[in-house]
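I had to read the description of the data format several times before I understood it. In essence, backbone conformation is discretised, so a fold becomes a row of integers matching the chain in length. I therefore recommend that a typical entry be quoted early in the introduction. For illustration, here is how one protein appears when written out as sequence plus structure tokens.

***
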Amino acid sequence: MPWYQLEDANDPKLDELARQYNLHPLHIEDARCADESVKVDSGSQYAFAVFKPVYLKPDPDAPSESMPTFFTIDVFAGKDFLITIANPACPTTDKALERARRCGDEEHPAHLLYLILDTVVDLYFPAIDYFDDRIDDLQDKVVDNPSPDILQQVFALKRELIDLRRVLVNTRDAGLHLQRDPNTIIDAEHQLYIRDTYDHIARLLDSVETQRDLLNNTLDIYLSSVANRTNEVMKVLTVLGTIALPALAISSVYGMNLKGLPFEESPHGALYVGLATVLTTVALLLILRRMKWF
């Protein structure tokens, strides 16, 4: 059975194969669309599938971190041919095709299609582990030192999880289509394998939902930490303002040039007024301490 491995969907070879195997023009158009979502479409002569393996690409701005990036594998699986379109420069797409070449039976396109799908799904598990580590790290940072930068990281991680969930949902629907469509090339022998892959996708989706809940909890912790810090600052300012009240009240009265004030004619009047200010301030501090304000 011939297996045609193309590296670019715009390769003229694809047009030749489309004429040779009667590939639908809409499927050719989907294969050449860079933003096409995961899908499986079965026909009477072949099945067309679009898969998106994930690759944890190192972040150039932060070498210790990674950015989940999705690539595309287009597959035309007929009864007596197989056409794959994938960029060999991507480690994940190359890994999926390499496993199919190594372990697959080239006489059975259904087996090759299953191996490609199963490898793509297995590649999502390291991404889930990556998100778990990122969330744990963010939770520690939120508790220790909440800052606007941490908040931006939380929102960025939520967007990445949304992208992963969208791909996983579409992959789940594609797996379900391969199980239930009577026109699919997946025969009864390979239905059990597809169901196993479908179970893996369901488990991945459960993990993503759990991670979204953890991120929401992290956001709640951040907001609570910021609110508590604001309350502590306001408490300190309130205590300082309250401590200053006796001095402000006494100094404002003696600064009004009123007649008949205590110690006005005394040569030690300033000393007495200063002493009264200190005593009232100390008394106020004792009262606040007794009330457990600080």
